[in-house]
Structure formats: structure tokens, C-alpha cells
Design goal:
The structure holds two protein chains of two kinds.
Chain A: H1 19-33, H2 42-55, H3 61-70, H4 74-85, H5 96-117, E1 121-127, H6 133-146, E2 154-161, H7 164-172, E3 174-175, H8 185-191, E4 192-195, E5 198-201, H9 203-206, E6 209-213, H10 219-223, E7 228-233, H11 242-255, E8 256-264, E9 278-282, E10 285-289
Parallel strand pairs in A: 1-2, 1-7, 2-6, 7-8
Antiparallel strand pairs in A: 3-5, 4-5, 8-10, 9-10
Helix pairs in contact in A: 3-4
Chain B: E1 2-3, E2 17-18, E3 24-26, H1 34-43, E4 47-48, H2 59-71, H3 81-99, H4 129-139, H5 144-154, H6 160-168, H7 171-181, H8 195-202, H9 204-217, H10 230-249, H11 256-264, H12 268-276, H13 278-291, H14 295-303, H15 307-317, H16 322-329, H17 341-357, H18 371-377, H19 384-401
Antiparallel strand pairs in B: 1-4, 2-3
Helix pairs in contact in B: 2-3, 3-17, 4-15, 5-6, 5-9, 6-8, 7-9, 8-9, 9-11, 10-11, 10-17, 10-19, 11-16, 12-13, 12-15, 13-14, 15-16, 16-17, 17-18
Classes of the chains: A alpha/beta, B mainly alpha.
């Protein structure tokens, strides 16, 4: 077979990472984000970071680790590091069945409870909100559920993510078609307006959401968050090891008010992680309740 | 169409070449030689329809192809000789596909389809591989023919005649077997037109093994099409089977057709996942694509087990021959099996299948070849190109035997 590609073309494009360097970098990422990277992903890491090393003109991973730890620009670099470590696949109304079940059961229960108590307020924490699709979807669900009554409610959706770049994007609230692949058309038309860059979330929806950059491995800042009625954390703990999963789920438990609910991603479970929550089964989802 | 000036010897006509007076000059498929070019000039032909060749690719396209193919090797050791060899083979195959008009999939196409309406039968953490397989085997019974073939396979004294009789009772199975023994998989010079002739030539044990594998495949006909394109799934399986057989053929003392069957069924656990956990399976596919990790690792992240954890109880419940089961169950971790040579062959074949599929729209990164498994397999990097060439000659004919 004749080839267009020179036989000297190499598969390696990146600076080599030694096992020691990998472990140093992995531990650093773990400390700063709780994300655990298995050594099997060593080569994946090499190639993901090699461009960054070249941009910074650093000859080795050891130099990059020093840069992350001691350089005057280390805070800014941390943000770039998070961009490289996390993927942010998400869309509006991802997992419709779960959201429907959430709206019809968990949300309805909480709304009724608050009405009965005469306290028209609701705190929701969206942990790992990526570019904002999840908290905005929750805001839309509240608009759909409460309709005109919404004006009388005090609703606060606190949306946090590790990546400052994601938080910036979320605040802008402009999305391309891909974000709407699972969104019913009427929802899109009602809550978004056409914008130069795609579709922009309407201010009425955005106003319920507060974005914050936050590391879920930083227990101190988690403790400062307002107590919640509901915590959403979907497709996030999958990146954590068991210890970190336990720690984060523990923080959710502490943050929730008695009777509050934790919602996880469709394929996620507290199996083997926590037995303090009571799983409530609805068709389409499990809601984990902190018994009160 | 190419102008006469652009033609060079070695190009192939894509259609019949007709002169202005209606005379047929050369038939489609003719490879142009210098003498043809001289003749064309003389008779005044100005434009000729030739097949696309990789020579037509622009520098930009070549760069794009390199980048595209490289993405599939992100997970493997870039200094490991067999990986480098597979990278080069995949580059050439992909360049050929692009020259023939295939467009490199963009990012959106590389993501899985929407399966929002699907529902898993098991919630994660509640269904272990054992309970999932048990649920499946209670629900659907396995084809009767399978157990009858198994019986003769285990019976040392069973005559060739008996096997031929049993296989012949299932017309579609018999037809497939005859197509397969006539395919390059066996490479017999004469046409084999009956099952009894096939048994005589291939051997009773071998033919029964083949029949067993094919009857197992027939079991899976109801996988939701929107979840996974079954044509792609079986193409991967058959490709792995062909590679496994060719790899085994390079080593002495290995019975190659067993490797074809093990390759054919190496991902059988995945079929149960599609049936029982369609949503989680899709999440795993998405997770693998988003993170450039092999599907097997994504399965472990999402479901806490992978398809070989499912194939183990599944094949045991079918009482599938143990040697074959081991090849299938250990194809991702051959070195954990006490006698790793056989699963190591499937392991390498699976990686090769992933590599050639890049040029056919494959979506998943290579899981990587274990260095020790490569060592004990006895395969050398320089053998891979020849094996891929043989595969290219065989795949379409063998595929057609299954449709």
C-alpha cells in the first residue's frame, strides 16, 4: 500500500510524562477538584496537556507542576487546568423522564409543603452546573409549575462549578443548537430569545439563578452555602473516587434541610457510598431524601 | 472527470470510455498504462472519468485525516511499536475512504443519538451481572438447535453424518455455514454445496463449533435499532473474528476457526447490556466519546461492571465451551487468565478491529494492547500490514454470509 503519510510520522506528539510526574499532577488535581484520574489515562493526559506545556514554553511535566504550585500566575493556571480536566457535555432538559418525575413528585411535594407552612421560598443547589443548562432548566421547571404565583415566591438556585470559564459561559446564557437536542420546541420558544450567538436565556429565567465558582473538595466554602430544600448533582460524582464521593455526598447531606432531596444523574447511585439518605423510587428517577 | 493532461499511468477508469464516434475504447475498471494515454491523445479524447485516488487529497485534507485518526489513539502508549503500526495502517485506510468520498464525521455526529424515551430494567447498583443474566435467561429461551449441536460437539463418538443431519434441520443455519465454508475464511479451491461435504472438508468438531457460534448469534434479533446500529455491531464482531483467525494462523498449534468464533462473540455481553440497560449503555457510549476513553472503561465508570462481567455468567448459563468462553471473558485483560495466549489473540484482534473501523466511521478510541499480551502472542508489528490486507480481501464476502 503506497502511503501519503511519511513513515516517520510519529504517534507521539507530546512531551513524555513519567509515572512520578503523573502521580504528582494527579494528586494536585485531586486536591484542587476532587477529580480522580486513573493511571490508565496517563497517555490521554500527556496529549491533553502537551499543547498547554508548549504554550507556556515548559519543557517537562515536572516544570508544569512547579508552575502550578509556585508561579505568580498559578491562580489563573488553575482555571485552565480545570478546563483541561473536565468535559462538559450537557444540554437543556437532559433526561426528560427524570425531570418529569422530579417535577411531578419531588418539586410538587416541596411546593405544597412550603405553601402549607406559609413560607413561599425555595432554595435549590445545582452542584456541578457546567455551562448553566441544568440550573436554567430547573428555573424553567419552576416557571412551569408555579406560573403566575411565581412572583410571590422567593426562589434561589445556587449554581456552582469548578471551572471559572464555565461559570462565565453560564452567566452569558447563550446556547447553540446542540444544547437543545432534548428540549421540547415550545419550551425553547417560551424561555429563550434568538441572539446573534444562538439562543439567549430570558432574564426572567436567569434572575432566579446565582452562579459561583466552587471546588466541591473545599468543605469550608461548601459550609458557607445557604441550606437547601433540593440538591441537584448530576453526572459529576462519576469523576470522583469513592472517598471523594462519600465526602461530597456528606456535604450535600449537611447542607440539606430535614426532608430535603438529593437528585443524582440517571446512571448514578448512592449504592456503596451512603446509607444516610432514604431512596424514594419514582418511575424515571430515584430521589434521595434526608429524613427529617 | 480529469483532463487528459492530469492523467497518469496507474489511474483506473471509473466508467466505460466512449470515443466521440460512439466506439467503446476501454471498459470501466481498466488501469491506464502509458500506451493507453498515447492512444487517447491520438483519438482526441480530452476528458476521462477516473476513480478517485489518495493522490487527489489536498494538504489540508491530509492534515485533517492525521488529526482525526490521531484522536483514536489518545488512550494508547504512543511509543509502543504495534500501536504506531496500527496508527499508520489506520491513516492509510482513512485516506482511502476520504478519497472515495467519505466525509470525516464532525463533533456532533460523533455523539450518540437521543434515547430519552428508553428505560432501564435495572437501576444501577440493584442489578448485578448475575441477576441481569438470570432475568434474561428466564425470559427468553435459547434456540433448541444450539443445544443439539452442543450435544454432538461433546460426544466424541458422534459421526460426521449426525452433525450434518442436525445442522441441515435449520435451513438458515445450513445456508450460512455453506456460505462461510465457501468464503475466504477457509479458502477451499472448489465450491462446497452441501453440509455433509462441508463437514467432511472442515472437520466435524470445527464445523460444529462454527454452527454453535452462529446459532448463538441468532438469539439476538431484538436490540432497539435507535440504540445501536446492529450492522455496525456485527461488522465489528466479524472483523474481530477475521483478525483473530488470521493472527492465530501466524502461530503454530492454534486452531484458527475457534478464534473466529471467539472474535465473533467477544462483545456478546454488550448485547445483554443493550437489552437490559439501554439508557445506561447509551450513557456509557456518550461518556466514552466525550472523554476519549474506551467503551469498556466507560461501562465500568457508569455501571460498575463491564461487558465481560456480563458475558461470564451468560456464557456459563449457555454452557458454552469453556475454552471459547475464556477467550471472550478475558479479551480485555488476557494476562489475568492463567493461560493468556488465546485471550491475548482476541485482545489484539479487538484493537485491530477498532483501528480499521476508524476509516468506516468507528467512534471509539483503541482500548490499547497490553505489552505482555503482545509479547506472548508472538505477533510482530511488521505482520500487521499483511494481516490487514488479507482482512480487506475477506471482510465483504464473510459479511455477506451473515446477511
Amino acid at each position: 500500500m503506497g502511503s501519503l503519510f511519511s513513515s516517520s510520522i510519529s504517534l507521539r506528539k507530546s512531551v513524555k510524562i513519567t509515572d512520578d510526574e503523573f502521580i504528582l499532577l494527579r494528586d494536585f488535581i485531586y486536591e484542587k477538584s476532587g477529580i480522580f484520574v486513573d493511571i490508565k489515562r496517563k497517555y490521554l493526559f500527556e496529549s491533553r496537556f502537551s499543547k498547554r506545556l508548549a504554550e507556556l514554553n515548559l519543557p517537562s511535566f515536572a516544570d508544569y507542576i512547579k508552575f502550578l504550585k509556585y508561579d505568580s500566575m498559578k491562580a489563573a493556571e488553575l482555571s485552565t487546568l480545570f478546563e483541561l480536566v473536565t468535559t462538559n457535555e450537557t444540554s437543556f432538559c437532559r433526561d426528560m423522564r427524570q425531570l418529569d418525575a422530579f417535577q411531578a413528585n419531588v418539586l410538587k411535594e416541596k411546593i405544597d409543603e412550603q405553601r402549607k407552612a406559609g413560607k413561599l421560598e425555595l432554595n435549590i443547589w445545582s452542584a456541578g452546573c457546567s455551562s448553566g443548562e441544568e440550573p436554567y432548566t430547573l428555573s424553567i421547571l419552576l416557571h412551569e409549575s408555579l406560573k403566575m404565583e411565581l412572583a410571590r415566591w422567593k426562589i434561589n438556585i445556587t449554581a456552582v462549578d469548578l471551572s471559572p470559564a464555565m461559570i462565565d459561559r453560564a452567566k452569558k446564557g447563550v446556547y447553540g443548537d446542540y444544547a437543545f437536542k432534548t428540549t421540547p420546541d415550545d419550551i425553547k420558544k417560551r424561555y429563550f430569545s434568538k441572539d446573534a450567538g444562538g439562543w439567549k436565556i430570558k432574564p426572567t429565567v436567569a434572575k432566579l439563578v446565582n452562579f459561583k465558582q466552587m471546588n466541591l473538595n473545599d468543605s469550608m466554602s461548601l459550609k458557607r452555602l445557604a441550606r437547601s430544600h433540593i440538591v441537584f448533582c448530576r453526572n459529576v460524582i462519576i469523576y470522583f473516587d469513592e472517598e471523594m464521593k462519600r465526602k461530597v455526598v456528606g456535604s450535600f447531606y449537611d447542607n440539606l434541610m430535614p426532608g430535603g432531596y438529593l437528585m443524582l444523574g440517571h446512571s448514578e447511585t448512592l449504592h456503596k457510598i451512603s446509607s444516610t439518605f432514604k431512596p424514594i423510587y419514582h418511575p424515571g428517577t430515584i430521589a434521595y431524601q434526608k429524613e427529617g | 472527470m480529469k483532463h487528459l493532461d492530469e492523467l497518469t499511468a496507474g489511474m483506473t477508469l471509473a466508467s466505460d470510455l466512449i470515443a466521440s464516434d460512439g466506439r467503446l475504447l476501454f471498459k470501466s475498471g481498466t488501469e491506464l498504462e502509458d500506451r493507453h494515454l498515447t492512444l487517447l491523445k491520438r483519438v482526441g479524447v480530452t476528458e476521462v472519468d477516473v476513480e478517485a485516488g489518495t493522490g487527489d487529497l489536498s494538504d489540508d485534507q491530509i492534515r485533517e485525516i492525521e488529526e482525526y485518526v490521531r484522536d483514536f489513539f489518545l488512550y494508547v502508549d504512543p511509543d509502543f511499536a504495534p500501536a504506531i503500526q496500527l496508527f499508520h495502517l489506520a491513516l492509510n485506510l482513512t485516506a482511502n475512504s476520504v478519497a472515495e468520498g467519505w466525509e470525516l464525521p464532525d463533533l456532533n455526529q460523533r455523539r450518540a443519538t437521543n434515547v430519552e424515551h428508553m428505560e432501564d430494567l435495572f437501576l444501577i447498583g440493584m442489578g448485578s451481572p448475575d441477576t441481569i443474566v438470570k432475568h434474561e435467561s428466564e425470559l427468553t429461551s435459547f434456540p433448541d438447535i444450539y443445544f443439539r449441536i452442543k450435544e454432538v460437539l461433546e460426544d466424541e463418538s458422534a459421526s460426521a453424518d449426525k452433525i450434518a443431519k442436525i445442522v441441515s434441520t435449520d435451513m438458515s443455519l445450513a445456508a450460512k455455514l455453506i456460505k462461510l465454508v465457501n468464503s475466504p475464511l477457509y479458502g477451499f479451491p472448489q465450491t462446497i454445496d452441501s453440509v455433509s461435504r462441508a463437514v467432511a472438508l472442515v472437520g466435524a468438531k470445527e464445523l460444529s463449533t462454527l454452527a454453535l457460534g452462529i446459532s448463538a448469534i441468532n438469539y439476538f434479533h431484538d436490540i432497539p435499532a435507535e440504540l445501536v446500529d446492529m450492522k455496525t455491531f456485527w461488522r465489528h464482531s466479524i472483523t474481530c473474528g477475521i483478525f483473530a483467525k488470521l493472527l492465530a494462523g501466524t502461530q503454530t498449534g492454534l486452531a484458527p476457526e475457534r478464534f473466529f468464533i471467539a472474535g465473533l462473540l467477544h462483545d456478546v455481553g454488550r448485547l445483554i447490556m443493550f437489552k437490559k440497560l439501554p439508557y445506561a449503555s447509551t450513557e456509557a457510549m456518550l461518556f466514552a466519546r466525550e472523554n476519549s476513553i474506551p467503551l469498556v472503561e466507560a461501562e465500568r465508570s457508569i455501571m460498575e461492571f463491564c461487558h465481560t462481567d456480563i458475558s461470564e455468567p451468560l456464557l456459563a448459563s449457555w454452557k458454552f465451551p469453556e475454552g471459547l468462553s475464556n477467550m471472550i471473558n478475558f479479551h480485555h485483560n488476557p494476562m489475568e487468565f492463567p493461560n493468556p495466549l488465546e485471550p491475548a489473540i482476541i485482545h489484539i484482534a479487538d484493537n485491530m478491529a477498532n483501528a480499521v473501523e476508524i476509516a468506516q466511521g468507528g467512534m471509539y478510541v483503541l482500548p490499547g494492547i497490553d505489552e505482555e499480551a503482545w509479547e506472548i502472542s508472538g505477533v510482530k508489528p511488521e505482520m500487521l500490514e499483511g494481516i490487514v490486507e488479507q482482512y480487506k480481501e475477506q471482510i465483504d464476502i464473510i459479511l455477506s454470509a451473515f446477511t
